[in-house]
Amino acid sequence: MTVDKSTVVRIAQLARIRVPEADLEALAGELDQIIGWVEQLDEVDTEGVTPMASTADAAGLRWREDKVDDGGQPDKVLANAPESRDGFFVVPKVIE
Amino acid sequence: MAALTALTIAEARDGLASGAYSARDLASAHIEAMEAARALNAFVLETPERALADADASDARRKSGAAGPLDGVPLAIKDLFCTEGVRTTACSHILDEFVPPYESTVTANLRAAGAVMLGKTNMDQFAMGSSNETSHFGPVVNPWRRSGDNRPLVPGGSSGGSAAAVAARLCLGAAGTDTGGSIRQPAAFCGVVGMKPTYGRCSRWGIVAFASSLDQAGPMTRTVRDATIMLGAMAGFDKKDSTSADIATPNFEAALGQGVKGLKVGIPVEYRIDGIDDEIAALWDQGADWLRDAGAEIVDISLPRTKYALPTYYIIAPAEASSNLARYDGMRYGLREDADGLEDMYEATRGAGFGPEVRRRILIGAYVLSAGYYDAYYLKAQKVRKLIADEFAAAFGKVDAILTPTVPTAAFAQGDKIDDPLEMYLNDVLTVPASLAGLPAISLPAGLSGDGLPLGLHVITRAFDEDTLFRVAESLETAAGFTAAPGAIV
To answer: Does residue B345 belong to the interface with chain A, where contact is any CB pair within 8 Å?
Structure first.
């Protein structure tokens, strides 16, 4: 088994998603099945192949000028904030 | 007013131009249809006041002689497109009551062309799903039923609400998005035309991101001609999307009417997979015969790594998703769960805000990107992706288009596959390869199954050769003469 309960706990922590204890067993089974299935790629000989991150590479990505061309809209930026004050997002204490 | 909802976009364009009816007439008829069909759950937000205001503005523009190519045409918009001042949730809980302060480029382009917005359509949560059953707003009902069987069927996904709305005559066309088949598979299940353009043809700016190297917006319509009209309005270079292709948008509609004489159409032997319905295999053969009769040369081709496309996709797409969806942290917008401290708040918010399929994919993505596994899974998948793209490139040295079925089966019943992720993923086995290679592809309704459900054929062409794609699709459409409509709505 590639993915067991402890693996799920570890990757859920990496992904910052709380997974209820009751879900762990079933989730481990599902993920193990999916990961086992994608491992069929091991059959493919990829020696010397350049990894492809995007099909847009071929056309050549553009560079833009490194300058601000938008902004100055704090009200719009904060419009959907769960909590904001004086033009800032309010979040729990970050540094103890 | 039933007649106005049965129009094609091309017909509506003519009728509006001749003054046979107004944009307000069209909008009113569709608002009525939309409200009468709420049982389908195709819309998660109806915007009738906006539609009427858009329509009145359109009528005024027409009077002043400034009508655009889609002026007065009522469209539905998938809830993945950010629409300024109009709630956009990607049908998730974590985006809750998010109201974008900006408009996606594609919907802005549609507005600039004069389109009228009827509302936001239902979809699988964050576009992850093939049945529209992962939506936080509940499933969409396919307007089609099997003959003699009243069980509700899925519309496909993730653009299930858009497909159902077009099929049920609730709009003249809809904007969808396609990452691995999310336009084409629901189009096939609902008997409509669904088209995914070349990666880079439509801007991704303002579309809630799922897998950025694969996501593309495209039109969902009732005819191939309508798809050309709608894509023409949606497409175009956008400096706000770094992967947007800086090339001119051709007049796609002008490609129609040329036939397929002299074109070479490839039939890839590897797409004849186990598990494909006999009726769909037969329709595929029929499609090849139609094209041959129309003057195309049918050529057997081989794309040997086709079987690896789906597992490649299910590494790359979740990896990109886990990265893209990291932004939903409860700090700046969307859901926030109460908790003690920052870490707890992240975990509580994300635990409560993501549905089971989205959570599954984020976890797969986090796993394949994690230390010690990156090379074995993610990098490996990127290499196989390259081989798959190269195979297509080699095939297009010999042929101008590739013909396949869209999906191995017709629409299935709600609940049939939702508990088996791998079974659900197999829906995309025939559409994913073109997505990985960034190629344009289209699904069009070409026949009915024995129990009366629509079946789709699928055409793929070279990058940025949508012209040939539409030519082949039009030829198939003419030969198929598909005129059936879902019984539930007519």
So the answer is: yes
pLDDT at B490: 40
Structure tokens at B63: 């009077």
How big is chain A, counted in residues? 96
The reply to whether residue B438 touches residue A56, judged by beta carbons under 8 angstroms, is yes
Q: How many CB atoms lie within 10 A of CB B352?
A: 15
Check: pTM over 0.90? Answer yes or no. yes
- CB atoms under 10 Å from CB of B393, counted, come to 14
CB contact under 8 A, B387 and A38: no
Catalytic residue among B28, B78, B104, B475: B78
Q: Report the alpha-carbon angle B11-B17-B23, nearest 5.
A: 80
User: Measuring CA to CA, how many Å separate B210 from each of B38, B49, B462?
Assistant: 28, 30, 24
Residue with tokens 């540094």: A95
Report ipTM (2 d.p.).
0.96
Antiparallel, parallel or unpaired: β B297-301 and B216-221: unpaired
Q: Dihedrals φ, ψ of A80, to 5°? A: -105, 10
Which residues does chain A have within 8 Å of residue B384's beta carbon, measured at their own beta carbons? 41, 44, 46, 49
Q: pLDDT grade, residue B420 (50/70/90)? A: very high
Q: How far is CA B426 from the centre of its chain?
A: 17
- In degrees, rounded to 5, the angle at the alpha carbon of residue B132 between the alpha carbons of residues B126 and B135 is 50
Q: Where are the beta strands (DSSP E) in B56-139?
A: 74-78, 116-121
For the sheet containing B264-268, what is the strand order?
Answer: B43-46, B116-121, B74-78, B173-178, B216-221, B193-196, B441-448, B454-461, B401-405, B264-268, B297-301
* CB proximity list for A45: less than 8 A, separation 6 or greater: none
What are the chain A neighbours of B340 within 8 Å (beta carbons)?
92
